[in-house]
Amino acid sequence: MKSTPLIILSLFVFAVANAQEKDGQNAMYAPIETIITDLNNDSIPDTIAISMPPVEGDPGQFRKINISLGTAGRNTFTAKDAWDDIDTIFLKNNANAVKSKRIFVYKENDTSYIVLFGFTYGSGRDELDVIAVTGSKLIQLANDNIENPIQFADLDNDGKAELICRNDYEIFTTDRETKGDIGTYSPYMVYKCENVLYLDKKLTETYNKRHYVWAGYKYNQHIKVLYPKTGKPQIMK
C-alpha cells in the first residue's frame, strides 16, 4: 500500500510522456499546407498536402508531399533531405498555377508539373524534384539531376513545354575598358519533359545561340562572356 502513490505517479508520468509523443507525431504529420486544384484537367479536384517540417534548427520547410488525384488514390514522395520555398529566380520567369510559396505547379492541357526545390546550401542545391501529373499517373521526372531550373517554355511548338535549366550560375565581374559585365560561361540546358527529364541537345544548342552564346554543354570558368550595354552577349577572344 505504501507504494501506491509511486505507482500512481509513474502512471501519470507515463501518460504525460505518451501524450507528448503523440502530440509530437501529430505535429510532424499534420499538413503544413494543403492545396486543392485540378491537376489533370478532369474537372475533379485534386489535393496536394505537405508535411514533416525539419527538426528545429535544420534547414528547409518540409520533407513529405502527398498528392491525391480525385478517386484515383494517393501517392507520397519524401525528400532525401528537405524541400524549401520556391526559388525566387524561377518565379521571375514563371507564373505559379497555385497560390503557394512552397509548391510550384505548371499546367498545360491535361498535364501538370510539380516542382519541389531542395534547400540551397553554400555548395549548391542538393535536390530538385519534378513530378508530372497526367491522367491518373504520377511520374517523378527528376530527383536532383538538375540544379537551377529557369523556365518552362514550349520551344519547338509541339504543344509540350520544355524545362530550361542551368547547372551553374554565372560569376560576374565588371570590366571598365569594355564597359560591360563579364560572366563565366554557363550554358542553358533544355530538357524534354516526358517519362524522364532528358537533355535535348539540338534545342539546347539552338537556344544558347539565340539567347546567349555557344561553346559546348559544360560550364567553363575560363571562357568569358561579355555583356555589352547594347547588343547580344558574346564570347571574349
Summarize the structure.
This protein is of the alpha+beta class and 237 residues long. The protein has helices spanning 4-29, 88-93, 201-211, and strands spanning 33-37, 46-51, 62-68, 74-83, 104-108, 111-117, 120-121, 124-125, 128-134, 137-143, 148-153, 162-166, 172-175, 180-185, 189-193, 197-199, 220-227, 234-235.
Secondary structure topology:
Layout: H1 4-29, E1 33-37, E2 46-51, E3 62-68, E4 74-83, H2 88-93, E5 104-108, E6 111-117, E7 120-121, E8 124-125, E9 128-134, E10 137-143, E11 148-153, E12 162-166, E13 172-175, E14 180-185, E15 189-193, E16 197-199, H3 201-211, E17 220-227, E18 234-235
How many independent structural domains? 3
Low-pLDDT windows of residues: 12-17, 19-27
How much beta, percentage-wise? Answer: 35-45%
Strand order of the largest sheet: 1-2-3-4
H/E order of the elements? HEEEEHEEEEEEEEEEEEHEE
Spatial separation of the terminal alpha carbons: 94 Å
The main pleated sheet reads as:
4 strands, antiparallel
Instruction: State Rg.
Output: 24 Å
Helices, by number, come to 3
Number of strands: 18
Task: Let me know the average pLDDT.
Answer: 85
What is the general shape? globular
SS class = alpha+beta
